[in-house]
Amino acid sequence: MKLQRYDTSYIKDYRETSEGYLTVNVPITRPGVFPYQRQDGTVQMEAKLPDEIFSDRTIRSACAKPVTDEHPNEPVTIDNYNTYSKGLSHNDARVEDLKLYVSLTITDKGLIEKIYDGKREISIGFMSDVLAESGTYNGQQYEYVQRNIEINHIAIVDQGRAGPEVAIRSDSDAWQIENKGGHTMPVYKIDGKDFEVDSVVKAHIEKLQAQVDAAAVKTAQVDALQGRYDALEAKLEKTEKDLADEKAKQVSADELGKQVEARVQLIATTKPLLGDSYDFAGKSEREIKEAVISTTKQDFKGDGKSDDYINAFFDATVEQVQSTGFSSTGANSAYTGDVGADKDLDEMKNKRLNMRS
Questions:
Q1: Whole-angstrom Cα distance, residue 186 to residue 200?
Q2: Cβ-Cβ contacts under 8 Å for 209 (sequence gap 6 or more)
Q3: Surface-to-core class of residue 105, CB atoms within 10 Å of its CB (0-12 exposed, 13-18 middle, 19+ buried)
Q4: Torsional class of 191: left (φ above 0), alpha (ψ -120 to 50), beta (otherwise)
Q5: What are the phi and psi torsion angles at 342 (to 5°)?
Q6: What phi and psi values does residue 79 have, to the nearest 5 degrees?
Q7: How many C-beta atoms lie closer than 10 Å to residue 51's C-beta?
Q8: Are the C-beta atoms of residues 62 and 151 closer than 8 Å to each other?
């Protein structure tokens, strides 16, 4: 939803026509940061940026618009034009000196008299989208930006917002000087020197300057956004690294739990076979398994044997012991010296090896 706004400038020069009308050439707005009052009475700083007020849309909207005595309490339309209009703007809206200019002709006698008496500030009434965007323009902080600006009317007011910086200028303006042919031409200053230029050329140069200023504002905004983006990207990378570290820790903890559980199970399985005197401290899984195998084959040597061989031999030994009820000591020892039993163990071991392969 568009909001209605008002900006002001100051009439410095005007010219009376033969009919008694007043014709003025006035800068009606300029880039800047301006205070606007909310409905609750508080004030918010809004930016009118060059790329908005110097857009083709806004420049066209300044043409053929009614001139009013103060701001009406509603937009001026064809239905209330005769009530509010005291004149009309021309179709010469253009950019000069980083301001938006347009000529006005005031046709109302009462308003003309007020101007002669000192009522000379001009305030545009316009509609715009006001978006929450913070930043700086020419060193001034703003909280909101006016977008899609469309001028509705141009009011003559007692006191306005921008003051005398934006002022009406006519043919008697200081930018005009007389040349040898008796005609007037605009003056453009380059590196401290004045040059006469065609008015079209001057307007084009100033429009280009306005575009440069607009580009500078955009560049600053892009740099600010890039800075915020880089900060967020760095934060995201740190968060992802922290999550990866936590996941690695969790995997390590799970793996450690599995190793502890396997160690407890191994000790529980082998302790009845090795006896209470066997010291498990500092022994690797393979050393414990080789000790179990040695209870059935006293001359067993694990040197040069693969882990798969040791594991298969161990599984076969445990299976045989558990099935026959052998223990680590006494007449029912796992190692019996019985050749037949040793043969059976070899067969079981070979079967396990065949299954693993």
A1: 9
A2: 98
A3: middle
A4: left
A5: -65, -35
A6: -75, -25
A7: 16
A8: yes
Which H or E run contains 178?
strand 176-178
In angstroms, rounded to a whole number, what is the distance separating the alpha carbons of residues 350 and 345? 9
Domain spans of the chain? 3-173, 179-274, 275-356
| pTM of the predicted structure, to 2 decimals | 0.45
Answer for the pair 101, 95: CB distance below 8 angstroms, yes or no.
yes
User: Residue 349 and residue 311: Cα distance in Å, rounded?
Assistant: 10
Distance CA 308, CA 316 (A): 12
User: Quick one: tokens of 59?
Assistant: 């420049």
* Alpha-carbon gap, residue 111 to 156, rounded angstroms: 8
What is the three-class DSSP state of 284? coil
CA distance 268 to 260: 12
DSSP codes, 73-119: SS---TTTHHHHEEEEE-S--EEETTEEEEEEEE--HHHHHHHHTT-
Q: Which residues contact 280 (CB under 8 A, 6 or more apart)?
A: 267, 271, 288
- Structural contact between residues 187 and 38, judged by C-beta atoms closer than 8 angstroms: no
Condensed to tens digits (0 to 9), the pLDDT of residues 52-104 reads: 999 999 999 999 999 999 988 889 999 999 999 999 999 999 999 888 999 99
pLDDT tens digits, residue range 230-273?
888 888 888 888 888 877 776 677 777 788 888 888 888 888 88
Tokens 């005398």: give the residue. 164
Per the model's pLDDT, the better-predicted residue between 167 and 110 turns out to be: 110
Closest CA to 124 of 23, 2, 48, 29: 29
User: In Å, what is the CA distance from 236 to each residue of 171, 222, 229, 233, 243?
Assistant: 61, 20, 10, 5, 10
Question: Which single residue is written with the structure tokens 């190692």?
Answer: 335
What pLDDT, on the 0 to 100 scale, is given for residue 189?
64
pLDDT band at 170 (very low <50, low <70, confident <90, very high): very low
Write out the H or E segment, with its range, that includes residue 10.
strand 3-10
Q: Say how many residues make up the chain.
A: 357
- Joined together, the tokens standing for residue 141 give 């902080």
